Structure formats: structure tokens, C-alpha cells
What we know:
This protein is mostly helical and 118 residues long. The protein has six helices and no strands. The protein folds into two domains: 1-63, no CATH class; 65-118. The chain has helices at 4-15, 21-32, 35-43, 47-60, 66-96, 98-117. α1 (4-15) packs antiparallel against α4 and α2 (21-32) crosses α3 (35-43). The protein starts with a helix and ends with a helix.
Amino acid sequence: MKTAGDVIRRIAAALTKVHSPAERAAVLLQLFGKSGQKMATLLDKGKGQIDGLRDAAERLGIVLSDEQINKADETADKLSALKQVLEARIAIAVTDNADSILELANALVTLIGKLDES
């Protein structure tokens, strides 16, 4: 199975064989849609450019391992579930205390009005 990085490198290598800029643009449009135009600068220089960027990312420590990516996915799922639970609990708390919240809001409006008068 090829990784996305492998596929991008192969595409970049193949694009160096397409000598016409118009043809390269057409290939990128066909492969990547509108995003192909944005990728042209990167891919036009061939797989050497891609390899250089990959090596720089590895040296800087900004490449995530498969394990880190899987943990990030799991964490995102857990955070999403937590968000749903918190939203539901907040909605319940607001609903259960709507009268008190309204009284507090009215009291604050009254207080602000009296402070403006003085």
C-alpha cells in the first residue's frame, strides 16, 4: 500500500516529464481540482523538492508517527463526545434554572439602571 507521500512523490516525478506548462496545469486540475493550481509550485520541481521538504520536516520534528496520528484521532473522538455531553448538561442546567437566570438578568438590568442614575 502506498502512502500519500509516496503518491505525491510519484506525481511530482511524472510531472517533470510534461514539458508544457499548460499540460502540467491540466494534469494537476484533473488530479486535484482547483487545489491543483496551488500545488503546482511544489510539484513542478519534482520529487527532489518533496524529499527536501520531508527531510526538513523530519529534522524539525514536525512529522507525526502513525501511532501519534491514531492517538490524535481517538482524542478528537473523545473530545467530540465530551462536547456533546457538556452541551446537553448545560442545556439541562439552563432549562432547570431558567426562572432564576431571568430574575438575575432583570436584577442586573435594574442595578445598571440605578448606577446610571447616580
